[in-house]
Amino acid sequence: MSLGSSMRPCGDYRTTYASDMTIFATPVTRYITLAFIALLFLVPFVGSPYVLNLMIQIGYYGIAALGLNLVVGFTGQISLGHSAFFGFGAFASAWLSNSFGVPVFFAIPLAGVLTMLVGLLVGIPAGRIKGLYLAIATLASQFILEDFFARAGWFTGGSAGAMTEYLTIFGFSFDTDQSYYYVVLIYVVLIFTFTSNLIRSRDGRALVAVRDHYLSAEIMGINLTWYRVMSFGLSALYAGIGGALFGHYLGFVSAEGFTIILSIQFLAMIIIGGLGSIYGTILGTIFMVLLPELMEWSVNLFSGSYPDLVQSLAYIKEMAIGLAIILFLIFEPEGLAHRWQRIKAYWKLYPFSY
Amino acid sequence: MPSAQTLLQVDDISLSFGGVKALQGVSFDVKAGELFSIIGPNGAGKTSMLNCVSGRYHPQVGSIRFREKEITRLKPNQRCNLGIGRTFQNLALFNHMSVLDNIMVGRHHLLKNNFLTGGLYWLTGARKEELEHRRQVEEIIDFLEIAHIRKAQAGTLSYGLRKRVELARAVALKPDLILLDEPMAGMNHEEKEDMARYIIDLNEEWGMTVVMIEHDMGVVMDLSHRVMVLDFGKKIAAGLPDEIMANATVKKAYLGEEDDDLVDSEGEVA
Ligand SMILES: Nc1ncnc2c1ncn2[C@@H]1O[C@H](COP(=O)(O)OP(=O)(O)O)[C@@H](O)[C@H]1O
Ligand SMILES: [Mg+2]
């Protein structure tokens, strides 16, 4: 949770409650954030296709990771089946547009809603069980959905996979990285803004209350079952939208991608970024998308002297992910969001370290 | 003081955990506007009694009625709508939230915005609603003199302040009946005096009926209108503070126990 006060310059007193309840801690933060978003809109004009591709990945993975953070970081539950929701969203959107001719523009949010229904179903046990048992239940849902992807040919195209259409609005097709980038960016901005608002209003606080002390949350009138199940529903909604955006970007969806490995990668994003931190989610996603790139880059650098390295690239990438999670858990358990706060605090007080 | 109207009616409550009989046939009533104390040695069943009223435990036998309405089987989260709020013996704040957010959670059952309207904040009136409740929460913050820590993370506060924030959170529920489980335990003399003043104000100015568990006999005798004594899960006495002080059974069961923590460091047991 962001606790603004410590990050505010001294002498900055709020005179109305309204000005104390703004989404950004200070006007400066607001301008910086808005300027940053404006800059993001300029990226297609300057960024290389490689950069654009990475940023689009960060966008759809980031949306899905934010969903996972709602359930794990904010509500304090565990979910090991997030990639199955991501996959379900991708297939659902393809299915809606291929089988029913639903325009992709509507198929993406509708796929999110369908995935949410699946998430609510998976979330029902969460109303009753916790900890290790919930971990196993969500793991089971991961495997059941994977199995479903393989068998339900009418929905997924079976082992062949499903082709997806490009998003088209009024005849304009978002079939290039440059144009699709904007679609993803708008979704990211809307969903992250929505979530920031949610967290500072009634039901967002209720989720955190359930996490921090469920017994007293209940005394405060919070229906534990409802919030535990709803947080799964929301996490699936976000994963479904992220997955749909992924599907219409690649033009093709196949089941192999949505395994437990991807679920663990989603967990890595939010652990590394910061559990219960909205902007930490983005930081963690950036980290997780760039890490394999960095590995590949370094392997290529050393491949001259160690040619065997190139063959091991896939393993090196996976090991790097595992290593990153372990190192963060040991040295920065509160994630990049916390580290960033500390860096800001340091510069605010510089040159006085206290 | 005691207006004739009964707010809380507890009839013949028995509660056991396996072989442990935490409560055995306890009956009492609390009148609207009263400040009612429950005393008794550790393990007597005082907290269990509050838990039955707040819904955390469901007694095997007996009935609890609040404003004539049967609530014995009601879930805890359905009771704040009726007007029951409480604090806990062991701190139970939302430690990672700010003090302000902790207290705002108390408004949960009074707020209407939800996942959708809360997320759309500016478009749905959620902002306006949050702001209105924020104003009322600020009144509670002023009353309990915690304005200086409103943005602090609850888990980082001192014990005494956390107790006060818990009280604020319970007051934010707008309860008609507030249950306080050892609100002054572990506080120093000055903090206790403040807390006693808040409790009197809640009772007299804010019109809340108070049921309080407290070990400090000085405080209990000063504040309470009526006192009930529990021992080994049974009610052994009830009455006006003076009557309780004079009661031989109570003296024997409770007040004479030198090793109990009720004879606290300040020797306030009269
Ligand atoms: N959840 C529980 N499970 C088992 N035993 C309990 C539970 N809650 C209370 N008890 C038992 O009930 C008795 C009364 O406890 P309690 O109500 O906490 O006493 P008090 O608040 O008066 O100190 C004790 O013997 C305690 O061990
Ligand atoms: Mg107790």
Polypeptide structure, described:
- The complex is a heterodimer of chains A (354) and B (270).
- In chain A, 73% of the residues lie in helices and 2% in strands.
- Chain A is an all-alpha fold and 354 residues long.
- Chain A has one domain (48-164, 171-255, 262-349): ABC transporter involved in vitamin B12 uptake, BtuC, CATH 1.10.3470.
- Chain A has a two-stranded antiparallel ribbon with strand order 1-4. Chain A has a two-stranded antiparallel ribbon with strand order 2-3.
- In chain A, strand 2 and strand 3 (172-173) form a beta hairpin.
- The radius of gyration of chain A is 21 Å and the shape is globular.
- The two termini of chain A are 23 Å apart.
- Chain B contains nine helices and ten strands.
- A six-stranded mixed beta sheet of chain B has the order 6-7-8-3-9-10, with helices on both faces.
- Chain B folds into two domains: 1-83 and 176-270, P-loop containing nucleotide triphosphate hydrolases (Rossmann fold); 93-174, no CATH class.
- Chain B has helices at 46-54, 99-105, 115-119, 126-143, 159-172, 189-204, 217-223, 241-246, 248-255; strands spanning 6-17, 20-31, 35-39, 61-66, 69-70, 84-86, 177-181, 209-213, 226-231, 234-239.
- Chain B is an alpha/beta fold.
- The two termini of chain B are 24 Å apart.
- Chain B is 33% helix and 23% strand.
- At the A-B interface, helix 8, helix 9, helix 10 and helix 11 of A face helix 2, helix 3 and helix 4 of B.
- The site of magnesium ion has 3 residues of chain B, from helix 1.
